[in-house]
Amino acid sequence: VQLQASGGGSVQTGDSLRLSCSASGITFNSYGMGWFRQTPGMEREFVSAISGSGRTTHFADSVQGRFTISRDNAKNIVNLQMNTLKPEDTAVYYCASDTEPKHYWGQGTQVTVSS
Predict the structure, then answer these.
(1) In the predicted model, what is the mean pLDDT of the chain?
(2) Which of 3, 9, 59, 103 is deepest in the core (most CB within 10 A)?
């Protein structure tokens, strides 16, 4: 199983970024997918998740209304559209699969938002 995250970068406050996570080695549409983020010295925190069908999504309160999550099951990709970015969104972002018996994680992509 491999999850490959991409799309991070350095932007200004108010800008947008789109992260993508490409998955292989799993029956992609059978599993929910999620995005998490982590800053140095802090625990990894939940950002957003989407069900296998794409019909159900969840967001952390801190990103609700600014971020959207989507998936393309034909291409085995999950996207995180991040709008109106704030400096506090700066973190390494990880995608993860809600697979059993274990969850898989991508390698992380850095997002830096400067004021």
Answers:
(1) 97
(2) 3
Cβ-contact 49, 34 below 8 angstroms: yes
Please report how many Cα atoms fall inside a 13 Å half-sphere around the Cα of residue 38, on the Cβ side.
12
Q: pLDDT per residue over 34-87, tens digit each?
A: 999 999 999 999 999 999 999 999 999 999 999 999 999 999 999 999 999 999
Strand runs labelled E in the chain: 2-6, 9-12, 17-24, 33-38, 45-50, 57-59, 67-72, 77-82, 91-97, 104-105, 109-114
**d(Cα 3, Cα 97) in Å, to the nearest integer?**
8
Residue 101, pLDDT score = 87
